[in-house]
Amino acid sequence: MQAQQQTRYSDAELTEFKAIIDNKLAEARRQLQFYLDQMSEQTNSEDGKPRGLDDGTTTMANEEINRLAGRQQQLIQHLENALLRIQNKVYGICRQTGELISAERLRIVPHTTLSIHAKQNR
Q1: Is 110's pLDDT higher than 50?
Q2: For residue 3, how many other CB atoms are within 10 A of its CB?
Q3: Are the C-beta atoms of 52 and 44 separated by less than 8 Å?
Q4: How big is the chain by its Cα radius of gyration, in Å?
Q5: pLDDT at 2 over 60
Q6: I want to staple 50 with a disulfide (CB 3.0 to 4.6 A). Which of 45, 46, 58, 93 is the partner?
Q7: Do 20 and 110 form a contact (C-beta atoms < 8 A)?
Q8: 75 and 28 in contact (C-beta within 8 Å)?
Q9: Where exactly are the structural domains of the chain?
Q10: Which residues are within 8 A (CB) of 107 and not within 5 positions of it... i.e. 6 or more apart?
């Protein structure tokens, strides 16, 4: 008799993944707030101009902080989407193959929607 292939993660496994995502989400939100505070400090002068740096350096610094903040916002969105997939009990299912993504991969990249096999074949 052949063992039946698991089609979704158990509620206990989903609870474990939710805890991982909650921790990563809290850290991502802290990091985003740090970047937002940095941007605010860059323009906190009476005339609204950046403080203490020449215009070229300020522009480069602001662009880098904006880029990093944008990446954090994107990560937060991906993590929030992963929480929705957990809530709907479809978390960990590869969107390309329909098979379960390995638990090891999900622990490392909890917001992924592709198995390693599917990602390598892109």
Answers
A1: yes
A2: 5
A3: no
A4: 20
A5: no
A6: 58
A7: yes
A8: yes
A9: 11-90
A10: 17, 20
Amino acid at 113: T
35: which 2 tokens?
């970047």
> What pLDDT, in 10s, does the model give residues 61-87?
889 999 999 999 999 999 999 999 999
Please give the structure tokens belonging to residue 75: 């990560």
Q: If DSSP states are collapsed to H, E and C, what string results for 32-76? A: HHHHHHHHHHHCCCCCCCCCCCCHHHHHHHHHHHHHHHHHHHHHH
Per 3-state DSSP, what percentage of the chain is helix, strand, and coil (rounded to 5)? 60, 0, 35
Please tell me what DSSP assigns to residue 91: T
- The pTM for the full model equals 0.82
Distance CA 2, CA 16 (A): 28
**How far is residue 2's CA from residue 94's CA, in Å, rounded to a whole number?**
23
Structure tokens that stand for 39 in this block? 């941007």
Is residue 22 within 8 A of residue 111, CB to CB? The reply is: no
- Count how many Cα atoms sit within 13 Å of the Cα of residue 70 in the half-sphere of its side chain: 6
Across the range 42-62, mean pLDDT stands at 64
